[in-house]
UniProtKB/TrEMBL annotation:
Subcellular location: Cell outer membrane
Keywords assigned: Cell outer membrane, Ion transport, Membrane, Porin, Signal, Transmembrane, Transmembrane beta strand, Transport
Organism encoding this protein: Marinobacter alkaliphilus
Porin domain mapped to chain residues: 12-312
Name used for this protein in its record: Porin
Amino acid sequence: MKKQLLALAIGSMVVAPSVAMADKGPTVYGKVNVSYENFDNGTDDAWRLQSNSSRIGVKGDLDLDVENLKAIYQAEFQIAVDDGDNSGQTFSQRNIFGGFQHKQLGTLKAGKFDTPFKVSQGKIDQFGDLEGDINKIVRGDVRANNIVQYTTPKLADAFSVNLALIPGEAAGTDRDGVADSISSSLVFDNGSIYASVGYDSEVSTTLNDLGGSTLVDAFHIAAKANIQNFELGALFQQSENSDSIGGLDYEDTTYIVSAAVKLDRWKLKAQYGMTDLDTSDDDLTLMAVGADYKVGKSSKVFGYYANVEADKGAKDDTTFGIGFEHNFSM
């Protein structure tokens, strides 16, 4: 009874109380990921407690008076388990949207959420949300505002297409159209093999040689194979600014490989990546190794080592950490 009351209370943040109590009601879910780490930037080092994108959310669907059509919703917020501070806030917004899902026609949703390009990386990243995360060297990890996305139903039980339109919402400029930015992906997933192609056009994000955000065109191919107890992943990506900046064109080319093996409760994993920065003629490299140990169906403890280094630049970040992760839903 207490669980149902809590679910309904959180669900009322995104739907009216009368709607929240319809059908099965919302699902409350979340993740607590905490690590105790030593971070060394080549000059100084310190121990710190990190909350690695810990989160809480509510999601669900509602049956409508149209056959095979239902309403969908999700509201997810990041929480800081270490110090309670998300850039001055208790909660910070992650993926929040509402929309419709039809069994034969697909899904339409609108709000603030991860672009199809970002999502289509799949699960090749063995150290997501940690200092070994591939986003330490590869850009395009965008959670876009004001985004509208259509996703086809699964075709031949394996293929899906995702197309998102992002208006610039800047009246009186050339960024006032219906789709100033476009993010898209084609995904194949049969459970054992995952493969995707992603493409972004004029999406606001960053490049490694640029300090701030700009409009970027990007393309990537990602793949992952689950073969018995083994996982093998790879990513190739090219990103460049859509328009010249001060007469300069910036381009990042990234290669990522990852692997893991499961041995009973253990999962041993590693990944390596390199990004070539065309403008500065520099290279960024990422290397990470680690191990997870399952202590329950939805819980694990882990340890890892990661290094992110620039060939010519000053960056030389090394991290050693131990931690735990609990996933929950009700």
